[in-house]
Design brief:
InterPro entries: Bact_OuterMem_StrucFunc (IPR050330), OmpA-like (IPR006665), OmpA-like_sf (IPR036737). One of its GO terms (cellular component) is membrane. It comes from Flavobacterium swingsii. Keywords: Membrane. With 277 residues, the protein is an alpha+beta fold. The chain has a four-stranded mixed sheet. A four-stranded mixed sheet has the order 7-10-8-9, covered by helices on one side. Strands 1-6 form a two-stranded antiparallel ribbon. It folds into two domains: 113 residues, OmpA-like domain (60s Ribosomal Protein L30, Chain: A); 139 residues, 60s Ribosomal Protein L30, Chain: A (2-Layer Sandwich), CATH 3.30.1330.60. It is 34% helix and 29% strand. It contains seven helices and ten strands.
């Protein structure tokens, strides 16, 4: 199999854009954030002064009728926009605003429904502290691997039970990025369809990387796991059915430094933990 090798050198500073999300919660029938969320929101603003907001979604609980809830969701969005503008945060020129009344998949926990979720791009200079490499198969190899993995997902999930862990192969990301390469999307679509067809299924996405001897460095694996989470939530899988965590290289299958490319590939993986079924 032909592979393409790209090296990352010590302390190379790279500008990256990662799509992330933030939730702000509200009390019943109130259009401004509750005290706890307001504090968290201000902390987020302080830590992300260069973030650009791309989408803002407003939600309500199931009390009252759809039109009233949609109006309240709009007011909540406007309250968040006001805070963002007062804090000099940048809103995208084509920012997407979407208020929901009852026309979304509600959580059984009403507190989780009373919220505004916004998505943002955050340019950051990222430092890579170790020499690593990532190899992505050439097109013919990649297409075959992804087709095989997408077709095998249903059987992987079929006989699982709570606590089981499934390894999903061949989800590839752009080099040193949380952006999933387009050709890996059929695998994510397969995962989405499994969640859609099994409404009681709850999962946790675990991200792992290879090569890094600093086991405390979980940033990249966390963002990659979050990218998969964001894909599913944006396709309207209920957010409380999916959680995510990055483990960096702290849970390798093979000891680091790996001896060969096969060991690196095994360590660099996405796992799905069955939380509830």
């Amino acid at each position: 199999m032909k592979t393409r090798y790209i090296l990352l050198f010590l302390f190379l500073s790279i500008g990256t854009y990662s799509q992330e999300k933030f939730d702000i919660f509200f009390d019943f029938n109130v259009e401004v954030p509750n005290e706890s969320s307001a504090k968290n929101f201000q902390n987020w603003i302080s830590e992300n002064p260069k973030a650009e907001i791309t989408k803002i979604y407003g939600y309500c609980d199931s009390v009252d009728d759809k039109s009233y809830n949609k109006e309240l969701s709009t007011k909540r969005i406007n309250a968040v926009i006001k805070i963002l503008k007062e804090s000099k945060l940048q809103l995208s020129e084509n920012v997407e605003l979407m208020p929901f009344g009852k026309d979304f998949k509600l959580s059984d926990n009403q507190n989780e429904n009373r919220k505004v979720t916004f998505f943002y791009d955050n340019p950051k200079a990222q430092k890579i502290s170790v020499l690593t490499n990532e190899e992505i198969p050439t097109d013919n190899d990649l297409n075959a691997k992804i087709t095989k993995e997408a077709n095998s997902l249903v059987s992987k999930f079929k006989n699982t039970k709570k606590g089981d862990i499934i390894t999903i192969d061949n989800i590839y990301f752009h080099l040193d990025s949380d952006k999933i390469i387009e050709k890996s999307k059929p695998i994510l679509l397969g995962l989405y369809n499994i969640l859609l067809q099994n409404p009681n299924l709850k999962i946790k996405i675990n991200g792992h990387i290879c090569c890094n001897t600093d086991i405390k460095d979980v940033k990249l694996s966390s963002k990659r796991a979050q990218s998969i989470y964001t894909y599913l939530v944006e396709k309207e899988i209920l957010f409380f059915r999916v959680t995510h965590e990055g483990f960096g290289s702290s849970k390798p299958i093979y000891k680091i430094p790996e001896k060969n490319d096969s060991e690196k590939l095994a360590n660099r993986r996405v796992e799905i933990l069955i939380v509830e079924k």
